[in-house]
Specification:
Number of helices: 12
Strand order of the largest sheet: 1-2
Strand content: under 5%
Shape: elongated
Number of strands: 2
Order of helices and strands: HHHHHHHHHEHHHE
Length: 214
């Protein structure tokens, strides 16, 4: 059980929050979208009111988990984009990084992107669709920033970079969601097909003289 003294210790609340998120991760890996606050509290060895004290409700916990996993995914995507390789190879590596991430932890992906089908979640009014949109929007903005830094798109380039960023994220999300659900092909085939789709104007655009290149 947590104590008032523990809560007041420097860094204790942050450490406890991290421990609770790790417990939530374990439950999500096991139960996917049906992960409940009761199960997460039990996994963490606390009562549900204490879980609410840290996150407010399931939406708050969802948002904390979304930030945790989005940060990790963005770090991996940036590393793929900045790898010393030809541009097409980096595009392929970036797409593969995203698909490999959702393939490795499909239950986490489903928790973040799909509403639970159990009645208890519905009764609480928790609609994952209302919360997953900001996650995808953040990925789109981050990718737009990377594109804008590395590719010279000429006049209106910042706006075009945002169009591309959100469009690519939308494509990755839709294609990945379909692929993860049906598994119609190997991941490598999907990556190659999506890269071919993207390999139009991006292939011929010049690099920015004042940027890291792409």
């Amino acid at each position: 059980m947590e104590t008032t003294q523990q809560a007041g210790e420097p860094g204790a609340a942050e450490r406890r929050r991290r421990e609770l998120l790790e417990a939530a991760d374990r439950v999500v890996l096991r139960d996917g979208p049906k992960a409940s606050m009761n199960a997460i509290a039990a996994e963490a060895g606390i009562t549900k009111p204490i879980l609410y004290r840290h996150f407010g409700d399931k939406a708050g916990l969802y948002q904390a988990l979304a930030v945790r996993h989005t940060d990790a995914l963005l770090d991996s995507l940036r590393a793929a984009l900045d790898a010393p390789a030809e541009r097409r190879d980096r595009v392929e590596a970036t797409l593969d990084t995203y698909l490999a991430a959702i393939e490795a932890r499909p239950q986490v992906y489903r928790f973040l992107m799909h509403p639970a089908e159990d009645s208890h979640t519905a009764e609480r009014g928790f609609d994952v669709g209302l919360h997953s949109a900001p996650l995808l929007r953040r990925l789109g903005e981050e990718l737009a920033e990377v594109i804008g830094e590395r590719v010279d798109l000429g006049p209106g380039g910042e706006r075009l970079a945002r169009i591309w960023g959100h469009g690519i994220v939308g494509m990755m999300h839709a294609a990945g969601d379909w692929w993860l659900g049906e598994r119609p092909c190997e991941r490598a085939e999907l990556v190659a097909g999506l890269t071919d789709l993207l390999w139009g104007r991006l292939a011929t655009a010049g690099n920015r003289e004042d940027g890291p290149g792409f």
